[in-house]
Amino acid sequence: MRGRGWKLPAVIAVLVPAVLAGWTLTAVSAETSSPSPSASSSKLPGDPTNGAQVFGSQGCTTCHGANLEGGIGAKLNPIQKFPSVPNPLDPTYLQTTIRNGRSGDAGFSAQMPAFTPDKLSDKDLNDVISYIIAQNQAGSAGLGPVELARSNVFWVSVTLFLLVVVTWLLARYNMRWIARRAAARRG
Fold it and tell me: Is 181 helix (H, G, I), strand (E, B) or coil?
């Protein structure tokens, strides 16, 4: 009967790391793959570097996040597509939305305020538009708050499950070792 229960722990010891490695590789490949440039990427209307500064100084990060990941406002990288908008990266659409504001979008309690020319010059507006388009061409932003929380819950749950499995396997091994030592002392 010696070595009778080694198959299940061996399968678990091989299968669990393989599954975790597969998940990790899938997540890494999904994050590093960059989207192909869209049709609107021909020429940017302004300077994306200055647009990043204007985006931060105008308080856009409060609603749209420092990495354009969204939150109170819509996600801007990758840009959120609304049903009535054919191409959300169209500079004309972005200009109209920033100048006139936007409200009534499902899932957002706050409305996009209007940035009139007295709040945002035409040059700064074009720079912000260029920044948004350039960031979408560069790849996805970091995780938003909801995705980050879900990811954390998932990985903490996986870790706890693995700790329970390892503890159970060690306890079984220890009890077998104790039983063998007791049998050896009696015999």
Answer: helix
Residue 172 included in any domain: yes
Quick one: the chain helix, strand, coil %, rounded to 5? 60, 0, 35
Structural domains counted in the chain = 2
Residue 29 included in any domain: no
Q: Which two tokens stand for residue 34?
A: 């960059």
Do 82 and 107 lie in one domain? The reply is yes
Same domain, 94 and 178: no
The two structure tokens encoding residue 46: 């302004």
**Are 127 and 171 in a shared domain?**
no
At 73-84, the pLDDT tens digits run 888 888 888 888
Residue 43's region, left for phi above 0, alpha for psi from -120 to 50, else beta, is: beta
CA distance 47 to 37: 18
pLDDT band at 89 (very low <50, low <70, confident <90, very high): very high
Phi, psi angle pair for 134, to nearest 5°: -65, -40
**Which amino acid does the sequence have at 8?**
L
Amino acid at 128: V
* pTM of the complete model: 0.57
Q: For tokens 């393989």, name the residue.
A: 18
Structural domain harbouring 133: 39-142
Residue 187 and residue 136 share a domain: no
